[in-house]
Records
---
Amino acid sequence: MTLPSLPSPHAVLSPAVVVPVGLPHVPPAPYRSQLRRFLVVGAITTVAYLLLFSALHPLVGEQAANAIALLLTADANTAGNRWLTFGFTGRLHVVRHHVRGFVAFGVALALSSGALAWLDAGGVSDMRVHIAVLLVANVIAGAIHFVLLRSWAFSGG
């Protein structure tokens, strides 16, 4: 008696494929997939933001460096998330998505500006501390950003 062969693990399976008992097939949730992609886009744009902030800080001061660096990376972040995280291509709703992404940028600007003001009020001038605090502020802003983009900016086109 010959046993039926199972498809290669690298084969593309359709939803109609029967999974053997004991090996449940649980497709990754769109949420988790989107979150992973969002984290990649966010990591790249956060590194760019921190590098820009560090370069601009001595030239224009911390608050201006923060605003400029965020502004320069916000559009790239929205474009990257629009395409990679949420799968939108072409021009359909592009203006709406970028305007709504700009609202999410406002959240990041408020958090990071507040964090810098808090450091100034405490007399902290060490650039390493500024970078660490901005990183934490960006992680918090990123969580809010993901929720805003997923539930509002990119929902329904």
Note: The chain has one domain: 30-153.
---
Amino acid sequence: MPGRVTALPPGQGVTLGISRYEVVSGDWQEGYAAFRRYFDMQGYVPPENFDPPVHWNQLYDMTSWHTISGYDDRRQELYTLAALWGEARKARDYHCESLYLDPGWDTAFGSAIWDEARLGPQAEFVARLREDYDLGLSLHCPLAAWCETSCYPAEALRMDEDGERVPGAVCSGSRQYLEMKAERLLKLCEDGATFLMYDGTNYTGPCCDPNHGHPIPHTPDDQASNYRWLCEVVQEKYPEVLIELHDVHGSGTKRAILPKHFPHRPGWNVENWGNEYMWTTFEDLFTGKMKYLDYVNRAYSLPMYLHISLINDNEHGLALWYTASTCRHLGIGGTHPNPVVATAQKGHMAKYRQLKRFFAQGHYFGLDENTHLHYLPDVQEAVLLLFNFTDQSVLRNEGIALPAAVNLDGKLLGNLGVRVGTTGETQTLFLNTVVPPRGVRVILLQQRDRVQQTTVIW
């Protein structure tokens, strides 16, 4: 329910949005497809030529100092230039395109001020990162609900109904906070950051300060509008900067709280968060929790971002490929303790980079929970992923009808284990291939006249 309804004064009214009803022939999957078509037509799709940088997240290998409450701030000791250059080398070795810095690069948690005294000027760091490692710079930028409050004016704190400040609670609607935060974010972009993650977006709570510039009381809907503004003020000046905006009510959580199109605007360069599956990704595949990402993609074309730890993945890259398939923007990090597995994972990333356009720009189809297809209509090609979440090898010997929106007609390159046939107006994938235990088969369905390599084995 819109927050304005719950705060409606006596005798006042509120205008609600339009309710849309559509009769759909078919099962629930046709319902999902109709839902996605509607939002696609409204412009809720990835930006044209969407090409988000593949991230290497330093968090998984660098000793963490901040994630457990009560730990002392040890960034001076642990979050050093030497450690970051070591992570940059890994990013290059794993075929990544940008070094993503999770908390620790700033002067204090959530300050959004680059710690020049410890790390040198940001612009110089960005220049060396590009010149020596061919990498961009991406930054974690938590908002009002998750920050060191001393980094912001005391006037930005929440005020209760009695006119008293709420200690340690920044108001996400205070102009004092928003204007200062915007200024700092713009400075980060000026000095070379090309990606900003807006974490810490939990609702900060009601506020009754008449000098904050927000309605009283300050509602979750007001916060959503404020954070949309915080995206727009950055992209007005730096439209090329990609922003990931966490759920503006629930932030870092595996609970789906808001529709994924809210508070987005059609066509803007902002993506959603992959619902905190960054910690136990491999485990979440087998509990079924990560299937949520599959169903989000069935309902929306809006891009999602997620980084995962390779430490918990296997030699088949099962978690890596599932994340790549369900999140148009991929981040990785962490060095597997088994060097054989680590080498295999580097190989998977090299393959991903070759196929990246299918995942970042392609039309997603969940043919079933173990079968994903990414289709590029301009070249009539696709990437097929066959997942196996069991402890035994699985023979996929079956036919799967393709959605009407997929046209793989033409002279496809013969692919061991997969062929495309046509029955009437329906195209069918005929499979005859084995998927290893806890593994995945990634198959490129490529037109013969576009083949650049005579032998391609995935």
Note: Confidence is low (pLDDT under 50) at residues 453-458.
---
Amino acid sequence: MSKFFFILFFFTSVLKGEGNYLLPPFLSLALPGGGQFYNEKYIKGAVFATTEVFLIYSALLQADRRRDVNRKLANLTVENPNYLSLRNRYKSERDFYRRDRDKYIWLSIACVLVSMGDAFVDDHFKEYDESIFKNLEINTSFNRLEFCFKF
């Protein structure tokens, strides 16, 4: 574990620099929400971190449940009077837990990729001047939308 943190520290110190847009996505890949925390988007980072941890935990939980059902299936004997119904039920439960586990794995991969993309974009637009929008006024009514820009 200490090697992981050493490598992470090494890459962050090497990659850190002005105009280097690779660091936030790398941090998002290494740590849940790491790129968002680096970009000082703390709420977004907490949301990504919580979501990634939940999805990974759910995938591990479904894998444990599938393992338990596999043990039950292996210990099932033909002498059991409900052998066929139990075998079918255990097989369907095993397939359900496998599909559910796979779904959580894919969702966690998607969440990491979205987190990396978001960290990259946030870092890219960090120095963007938002003062030009202070003079923008948006007026809405029932069937109309107006944008007024004051010079």
Note: The beta strands are 136-140, 145-149.
---
Amino acid sequence: MDDSPVGVSHPSARPLPGVTASRDYLAIMLQSLDERRKHRVAFRRMATDMAKRYLVQMEIFRTRGLQRLENLLSDQVPPLSDAKLDEFARSVDAAQRRLRVSDKRRRELMDIVEDYTPGPDIVAYRHAAGWYPAPEDALSLQGFLASRAPEGEHGQSFRYLSPTTDLMGWVCARAAGTTWAEAVSTYLWAPIGAEHDAEVTVDREGTPRAAGGLCVVPRDLARLGLMVARGGDGVVPEWFVDDLVHNGNPETWARGDFAENMPGGRYRSYWYHPGVEPDVVMGVGIHGQMLYVDIPRQVVVAVQSSWDEPDPEHDHDDNRALCRALAAAAAGG
């Protein structure tokens, strides 16, 4: 290995068998608690360097022109022949008969798959956010956001679109003069007394995604809810919490995407109002995550979840009913 700084040592690294002071070695602690990013960058750099050195020496790769690490994975899906498609259709039909799935249920399942099969805009969004392996010419997250055009007239109906949350994260970062993650850490996470660091996904430029990918422990999620329940608790202005709790246009909601699923609801500052009891707000995730804040009862319910299927409405209904029952029970009725 050359003398370039491809890694870092770790103070707790133990002596390795067969390694002496006269031999060069590199200790990389991928699960270390300090400077984790630096160690992982060093590992990727070392792996890339080794690939450049040794792939070209292997005939099976050299003759196919696979001389770079990224060349080993294709971004093209191999086409299926008509014969393979017919074979697949027969296999699906046989599975349907074996599992006794009715034609009606099969159609319902196909509709669900079609609803959540990502179109080109979603694929481009996930490439930009770093959630899909991206081609070399893919936009960054900020590049993708800057490429979007307005859809519909502002203020006419409610429509949830994740990129608008990412855009607000970009605005917050610019206002704070730092990254969105650092702003959240400085102005929210540390002040609420979080026990553990949170982690968030980033794109290839290191831009955090504000709309999703934030990983926290349940107790810290509950602390965030308590901050809202206590009117900001000195962390955010009381007027801001009052606004998100008591405002939001029910008429706009009634003309929007989720009106049938949550009648009488509202939406304000990225929080949902279920419209069942006054002064109750929720944060909701598509795979069952929920932060339920009952301000009159001063009860917070934090739900972590990973449903296989995104946004099954009956499960969202059950989640809300469960949280409402837990809040009532915890407050004594």
Note: Residues 29 and 35 are 9 Å apart (CA to CA).
